[in-house]
Design a protein that fits this description.
The protein is an alpha+beta fold. The protein has two domains: 60 residues, Orthogonal Bundle (Arc Repressor Mutant, subunit A); 129 residues, Umud Fragment, subunit A. It is built from three helices and ten strands; from the N terminus they run H-H-H-E-E-E-E-E-E-E-E-E-E. An eight-stranded mixed β-sheet has the order 4-3-5-6-10-7-8-9. The protein has a two-stranded antiparallel sheet with strand order 1-2. It is elongated. The two termini are 28 Å apart.
């Protein structure tokens, strides 16, 4: 168990006082606790998540605070942005842009899978609304083979990440958006499947 210094203890105490709120901001924490930069607040919150002292509550969008560290969370990488429209372009680099702590109970599990198979991308654009909206965090399960059951998948198209609906017609693959005005049809050799959409986290 990681021993916390006075700054971390003060941050935990403050979060306990704010557990009923869903509008707490990094800036407010910074001003209330006299941090000289909001980046320091973000860093310390992320460390407290990794150590198991706090956990993002995806019902209230606040933080749950624990007296003793919990271990029912996993830290997953966040790779850039996934295109859900035609205005954005992004490439998944070998190193994640950031990480996100997520409850393990919210991850679908099979015996031969690992948490290392999961990662997040951030949706950009409106072509997958209402299922996926701009700014949503999309949990992806790595799986490079297309399967009939995986209707919404993350693909790489000419180096861009895209979340689309995949349909197969005699092994000719087509990519569609849920928004009919944003229909896309791509040749098979332009597309490689990276994984399928496991969960969509809204309003994070």
């Amino acid at each position: 168990m990681t021993k916390l210094d006075e700054v971390y203890e003060g941050l935990l105490s403050y979060l306990r006082e704010q557990t009923d709120r869903d509008d707490l901001t990094i800036t407010e924490i910074q001003k209330s606790l006299w941090f000289d930069h909001h980046g320091k607040v973000s860093h310390r919150l992320k460390m407290l998540e990794q150590w198991g002292y706090i956990r993002k509550n995806f019902d209230t969008w606040g933080y749950d605070v624990f007296e003793q560290p919990v271990s029912d969370t996993v830290t997953l990488p966040v790779y850039g942005s996934a295109l859900c429209g035609n205005k954005w372009s992004a490439v998944m680099d070998s190193k994640p842009d950031e990480t996100m702590t997520f409850p393990t109970a919210m991850i679908w599990w099979w015996d031969n899978w690992s948490y290392d198979d999961y990662f997040f991308v951030k949706a950009k654009g409106d072509s997958m609304e209402p299922y996926i909206e701009d700014g949503n965090m999309v949990l992806i399960k790595r799986y490079t083979m297309w399967r009939e059951a995986d209707k919404k998948v993350l693909v790489s198209h000419n180096g861009d990440l895209k979340v689309k609906i995949v349909q197969n017609n005699n092994w000719a693959f087509f990519l569609f958006s849920t928004n009919a005005e944003k229909l896309e049809i791509l040749k098979t050799d332009e597309v490689s499947v990276i994984g399928y959409v496991s969960k969509v986290i809204k309003d994070i």
